[in-house]
Amino acid sequence: MVIVKIVRISVIAAALVVFASASQASDPFYTSLLTRGVSDAQRGDFFKAVKELRIAAFGLVDNSSEYLRAQVYLANAFEHLGRHPEAAAAVEKASLAERIESAYASVAIDPDTRKAFEALAVKALRPEQLAMVPAFRKGAVPAPAPAVVVVAQKPAPPPVVVTQKPVAEKPIEKPVVVAPKPAPPVQKPVVQAPPPVQQQRPPQQQPVVIESPLVAASKHQPSQSSAALDASLQIADAQRLLNEGKILAARQVYLRLMQVDGLGRSTMLDVAKGLNLTSAWRESSVAYQKAMPFRSGEEIHQFYESVNRYELGDVAAARDLLTRALPALPVTRETSLYKAKILGMP
Fold first, then answer.
1. What is the arithmetic mean of pLDDT over 243-255?
2. What is the pTM of this model?
3. What is the spatial distance between Cα 254 and Cα 299, in angstroms, rounded to a whole number?
4. Which of 201, 272, 292, 330 could staple 287 via S-S, CB 3.0–4.6 A?
5. What separation in angstroms does the CA of 200 have from each of 193, 194, 203, 206?
6. What is the mean pLDDT of the chain?
7. Quick one: which of 73, 68, 75, 71 has its CA closest to 102?
8. In the chain, % of residues over pLDDT 70
9. Per-domain boundaries in the chain
10. Is the pLDDT confidence value at 53 over 90?
11. Strand (E) positions, 33-155?
12. CATH pick for 27-137 out of 1.10.1520.10, 3.30.70.100, 1.25.40.10, 3.40.50.300
């Protein structure tokens, strides 16, 4: 009877171990997103990495080590994009995961990312928070102790003993009477003649230079056509920076173009799209407001404006814009991702 009970207990324990291991297994969809996000962050495409790592962290919240890894790369990506409050929030989430399960030292993180994250953690976390996650402080350099300057005091000079010699008495000399010198003769002042008065000549008139029509035309401001050509060149340059992963540099080009007066409507649409691609949601939406209403054939711009409104918290406007643009939208990973977010559609 005792042997039968022992066998039953062993079977139940084995089943619990299998169930626990199965419950800890991560969804392959979110694990794949984490792998892609880490890869994009390592090659400098931080804009794409942020999108993938946020979704991956949402799906891996029950797996503390993978969730911690996603938040580490996400914090560094936000910091590279200049989104410092979001980077600090990701650091705090990573510290909470580390406090639940100390896995930071064993998680697969490349050395450069680990060093950058630890420097960011020292800035983002309060001292009491940082004290609870000692693994985050490996890269922190302690502040040097203030140097103590020892000033050597010079020894006081020995006292000088002054000995006075006896002064011999001098004999009293008789006063010498000096006869006064005669006063010098008074010299009469010499009166000089005043200098001759020079007559001033009237100023000569400068010759009037009459410019030729060609010289006058060369001093005019560039025409509107040259300004439009310059805007096109700047947009092409910003697109090149985007392709190279230089998100912040591209954003600055688009922000400068947004302030130029007299831009055409098509140019303003290109500027608004570029600002969206650099995660400048608010500025992109302001640029789209200047070009509204949308016309037929501009459904892709409606899509980008719906993304702006969603990221800014106006979900109702985002849903309305995306619903109207949906029939003409191309099927891409980006459009599919935001269809799921905004409309709940696969």
1. 91
2. 0.38
3. 21
4. 272
5. 21, 18, 9, 18
6. 77
7. 68
8. 66
9. 27-137, 225-276, 293-346
10. yes
11. none
12. 1.25.40.10
